[in-house]
Design a protein that fits this description.
The protein has 137 residues and is an alpha/beta fold. It has helices at 8-15, 21-37, 45-51, 58-66, 77-90, 97-108, 119-126, and strands at residues 3-6, 41-44, 71-73, 112-116, 132-136.
Length: 137
């Protein structure tokens, strides 16, 4: 069973629908499709690092996560190792660490679909991993 992974922009689109109604609608469509197929929805914990910025913005993320349609996946040793190898193979540094953790989480969970607004970096890191698909929202 494939997993649906929400990256930073996908989770942000759910939490802040007014910022981009079309993006919000595309993420919701992805969630409906995952639900119909019985595919789990996951959010890598590293995504929250980019979204939790304080200044009254954290609450919207917490409200979305409280709906419990998605589970937050923590970064353990295995995911960290996969992410580190992805960065090394791509000859990239920590500037792409969160993207690498998103791809690594997908790999560790057996493959699936990543929803993102900016697919190029994720596709670059996922090259050579056919079980990982990246879809622009």
């Amino acid at each position: 069973m494939a997993v649906l992974i929400l990256d930073t922009e996908a989770l942000s689109a759910l939490a802040r629908p007014h910022a981009s109604r079309p993006r919000h609608a595309r993420v919701r469509a992805g969630l409906r499709s995952a639900e119909l197929r019985g595919n789990p929805v996951r959010v890598p914990a590293a995504v929250l690092v980019e979204l939790y910025t304080g200044r009254g913005r954290d609450e919207a993320i917490d409200v979305v996560l409280a709906r419990r349609f998605a589970r937050v996946v923590t970064t353990g040793l295995r995911i960290a190792r996969i992410a580190g190898h992805l960065l090394a193979d791509a000859r990239k540094g920590s500037e792409m660490a969160v993207d690498a953790l998103v791809v690594a989480t997908t790999i560790r969970l057996g493959g699936g679909l990543i929803l993102t607004h900016d697919p190029s970096d994720l596709e670059f890191l996922a090259a050579g991993h056919p079980q990982v698909r990246v879809v622009a929202i």
